[in-house]
UniProtKB/TrEMBL annotation:
Major subcellular site: cytoplasm
UniProt-listed InterPro entries: 6-PGluconate_DH-like_C_sf, 6PGD_dom2, G3P_DH_NAD-dep, G3P_DH_NAD-dep_C, G3P_DH_NAD-dep_N, NAD(P)-bd_dom_sf
Protein name, per record: Glycerol-3-phosphate dehydrogenase [NAD(P)+]
Species annotation: Rhizobium daejeonense
PROSITE patterns on file: NAD_G3PDH
GO molecular function terms listed in the Swiss-Prot or TrEMBL record: glycerol-3-phosphate dehydrogenase [NAD(P)+] activity; NAD binding
Domain Glycerol-3-phosphate dehydrogenase NAD-dependent C-terminal: 181-318
Length: 329
């Protein structure tokens, strides 16, 4: 008889809670959602609803909640579901509690800003004795937790590890595809957020759906160039964590990145105090800098980075994008 996997999901925000819930509901793995606020975890255990992160969605009875870090040491699979810029700190905080053979899976969509390195690289350096994987792809936390059909990719250095993760985490409504392209899978998630901001700007300015489609197609082209230059595979970009997530995030108002772009395009003040995480606002500048160093053209990402840092006005950005030299596709 197979022993059920023990899985710890660290980070009790929208995505961590959704992942923990969708894995727990299958009953094949023992899942604990680990948050850093003991009072919240106790409340979740009794109410079975995370009103702040996933309002109105019932969390399964089988899901355990804890703020006690010792539960991490019982897990063979540990998901890091906190934002990108908190992942390095998380490795420091939770590394000492990991069991010897635990696989760590980053579920964030971004690039480490302070080091300008991939999340899997910084995690590997911080946790050298652990296999580091990445889970990314199209899927809003509310859809996943609500039991709507969703599919994502999980990539590890070794195919057997990626397959083990895909089997342990997938269920009837949430399906994972195994990959060994960690670079492609994580950059797909990081870059689609930047492109979703660009699509939001276009929507906020009322430039039309044709402009959005052009941005998606040209954005995908620059994403492919960048992923290949960083050592990933162009074919990953045409999969779930590339085209799939780009189409979702660039078109759905559920996306925080798209909504952020819409506010920029309308010239509305941006209120970060509402606690809305906009990963693309962090990734734009670092991707743009990395691309420049690699000699890769990323005009849309560059423009988003400059609009966010205030060095480029939106009308000028659009004029620049439209007046680039005529080239082949
Ligand atoms: N929401 C979604 O639909 C999806 C999100 N993602 C990705 O998942 C990541 C997280 O996003 P999301 O869940 O939406 O964000 P939220 O803002 O909803 O939640 C982030 C959570 O991370 C917690 N956190 C931050 N730092 C730490 C830490 N050091 N240790 C433990 N917990 C920590 C926060 O805790 P506290 O409240 O205590 O600050 C908060 O609960 C992002 O990279 C996002 O791109 C991926 C797919 C879908
Ligand atoms: O990554 C997501 C869906 O796949 C969530 O997108 P936002 O972070 O823009 O809300």
């Amino acid at each position: 008889m197979n022993v059920p996997e023990r899985i710890a999901v660290i980070g009790a925000g929208a995505f961590g809670t959704a992942l923990a819930a969708v894995i727990a509901i299958e009953g094949r793995a023992q899942v604990t959602l680990v948050g850093r606020e003991a009072a919240l975890m106790a409340d979740l255990a009794s109410s079975r609803v995370h009103e702040a992160a996933l309002p109105g969605i019932a969390l399964p009875e089988r899901l355990a909640f804890s703020a006690d870090l010792s539960v991490i040491s019982k897990a063979g699979i540990v998901l890091f579901a906190m934002p990108s810029q908190a992942q390095v700190e998380a490795a420091r905080q939770y590394g000492p509690y990991l069991s010897e053979d635990a696989v760590v899976v980053t579920c964030a969509k971004g690039i480490d800003r302070s080091s300008a390195r991939l999340l899997t690289d910084v995690l590997e350096e911080a946790l050298p004795n652990h296999a580091i994987a990445v889970l990314s792809g199209p899927g809003f936390a509310a859809d996943i937790a609500g039991g709507l059909p969703t599919a994502m990719a999980v990539a590890a250095g070794e195919h057997a590890v990626a397959e083990r993760l895909a089997r342990a985490i997938s269920g009837r409504t949430f399906r994972l595809y195994a990959s060994t392209d960690r670079t492609g899978v994580q950059l797909g998630g990081a870059l689609k957020n930047v492109l979703a901001i660009a699509c939001g700007i276009v929507e906020g300015m009322g430039l039309g759906d044709s402009a959005r489609a052009a941005l998606i197609a040209r954005g995908l082209a620059e994403m492919s160039r960048f992923v290949e230059a960083m050592g990933g595979k162009a074919e990953t970009v045409s999969g779930l964590s590339g085209l799939g997530d780009l189409v979702l995030t660039a078109t759905s108002h559920q996306s925080r990145n798209l909504r952020f772009g819409i506010s920029l395009g309308r010239g509305e003040p941006i209120d970060f105090s509402r606690g809305q995480l906009v990963e693309g606002a962090f990734a734009a500048a670092v991707a743009s800098r990395l691309a420049e160093g690699l000699g890769v053209r990323m005009p849309i990402t560059d423009a988003v980075a400059q609009v966010i840092d205030g060095s480029l006005e939106i009308p000028t950005a659009i004029e620049q994008l439209m007046s680039r030299p005529i080239t082949t596709e």
